[in-house]
Amino acid sequence: MFDTILIANRGEIAARVIRTCKHLGIRTVAVYSDADAEAPHVQAADVAVHIGESHVTKSYLDQDAILQAAAAEGAQAIHPGYGLLSENAAFVRRVQEAGLTFIGPRPEVIELMGDKARAREFAASAGVPVVPGSDGPVDGEEEALTIAEELGYPVLVKASAGGGGIGMNLAKNEKKLQKAIKTSVRRAESAFGDPTFYLEKFIIDPRHIEIQVLADSHGNALHVFERECSVQRRHQKVIEEAPSPAMDLHDGLRAAMTKAAVDLVVASEYTNAGTVEFIVDADGNFYFIEMNTRLQVEHPVTEMITGLDLVEWQIRIAAGEELTITQDDLSIDGHSIQCRIYAENPEKRFMPAPGTITEWDSPQAEGIRLDSGVRANFDVTPFYDPLIAKLISHGPDRTTAIERMTGALERFVIGGLTTNRQMHLQVLADPEFLSGHVHTGWLEPKFK
Amino acid sequence: MAREEVRAHITGTVWKIEVEVGEEVDEDDDLIILESMKMEMPVVATDDGTVAEILVEEGEAVEEDQVLVILEVD
What is the mean pLDDT of residues B46-72? Predict the structure, then answer.
């Protein structure tokens, strides 16, 4: 087992990884930028190393600075959290060349899954259903128009190197497709330096359901059930839950989806924690969209219903340990919901809302967990993601989990900052949400 | 001719300036792209007109409501 781990991230996820390290008796090294000098993750770690200016390219994405910090503090492993360098294969190789362990999968599989077109092809070859679309990258606008005609509109233009909705655009007809390609190419070029794009048929009103997987380097692979993440804005998740209410509607859906996810893990010789994402249509057909080769923002709901600590398993697997749990050991206990607290304004088209938190009184109650990266008298700066905290509830059933979440949100005092707290309360009281039957396009039109 | 101030609708940094002084623009054309919390947001022309002044530079930090561009409109 490692003696010291460097956490190459910030905010709530850095604080959360540190918590598990402490529990395992592992010394932690935090890194921070100018803007984060006083941040909770810096205070929580055993040591903290300043790695640069506030902009991510000059700190949290500065591979040299992070590797130097790891060497200076004697870290043997690096936990990347999510976002930032977590799915950067070149960084993983540099970590390994420096003689350190990257807490995540092999760089080859990160590359495979990071290239969405290749990942799609690979999934199809492993027998995992994929959304009908262009088989691989599309060579220019003319070819795109021909393919779109065959698929039927609407179609989605997606950047091959994309993720988190970046470089993704919807086209309802031929004219819109031309515009969507231009926008996607421009965004993909500036964000990833790679303009390659592909097309997919747009599945109308799908749910987003994903499967958590764990696999070790000894050939053991298992799934840790599903998470439903259909409440989204700008293709980003806002509320997640486990288990998915959809599983009650379609016999055999969970078995089929979890099998597909494990098949993909085995075929790609994937190790560590990962998430296989699917969309599911109204008839219970499911299609692979991508695999996230890292810890997911919404991993807590899986932890709440299974009692596992996914970060602990990430660390143990990276250290070469064998999974001591089997598929049969795992079962679903109750229901869990996570509300992402964003510094943003739902009334202003979910626009980011940086500011200073003057008051922060977080609720503590039975079945309530808070993963937070902020506190009172703390500046939420424009430099980073608007996600400031995650409120998670657990109960014996969905109704109780929702009730507990509602109570916690009502008591949650966040002063001085515009957040989506009130929006969460509206969603949790919405008859359609309560019925469990919403889709990925459901939330946004409610807040125009 | 009237001068119209185009303001930042959000605190962030100037990612890109899409126009030049003297350029004619239509209402809703992108003038400046701001970046905040990992999101790019265009600041658009509030009216048809000509770009009279650009008051910021790429990479500069701006506050919500700060004047970014001055347009000359009819």
Answer: 94
Is the CB of residue A65 less than 8 Å from the CB of residue A47?
A: no
Domains in chain A, CATH or no CATH each: 4-103 (3.40.50.20), 132-201 (3.30.1490.20), 207-447 (3.30.470.20)
CA dihedral A86, A88, A90, A95 (to 10 degrees): 0
- Predicted complex ipTM: 0.73
What percent of chain A clears pLDDT 90, i.e. is strictly above it? 86
| Number of helical (H) and strand (E) elements in chain B, helices listed first | 0, 8
* Residue A354 to residue B9, Cβ atoms within 8 A: no
**CATH code at position B45:** 2.40.50.100
For residue B6, give its domain range.
2-73
DSSP secondary-structure letter at A151? H
The reply to whether B62 touches chain A by the CB within 8 Å rule is no
Considering only residues 33 to 92 of chain A, which have any Cβ-Cβ distance to chain B shorter than 8 Å?
Answer: 55
Contact A386 B11 (CB under 8 A): no
Rounded alpha-carbon distances, angstroms, from residue A129 to A6, A142, A147, A212, A274: 38, 27, 19, 17, 18
Interatomic CA distance for residues A93 and A124, integer angstroms: 28
Greater model confidence, A40 or A168: A40
pLDDT tens for A171-197 read 999 999 999 999 899 888 877 888 999
Residues of A in contact with B12 (CB under 8 A): 352, 354, 382
Q: Closest chain B residue to A166 measured between Cα atoms?
A: B39
A294 annotated active-site: yes
A347 near A248, Cβ under 8 Å?
no
The predicted pLDDT at position A164 comes to 62
B44 interfaces chain A, CB cutoff of 8 Å? no
- Structural domain count, chain B: 1
Task: State pLDDT tens for residues A86-135.
Answer: 999 999 999 999 999 999 999 999 999 998 879 989 999 999 999 899 87
Query: Choosing from A106, A294, A316, A398, which is the catalytic residue?
Result: A294
CA distance B35 to chain A (A): 8
Residues in B closer than 8 angstroms to A182, CB to CB, are: none
Residues in A touching B37 (Cβ below 8 Å) = 343-344, 352, 354, 382-386
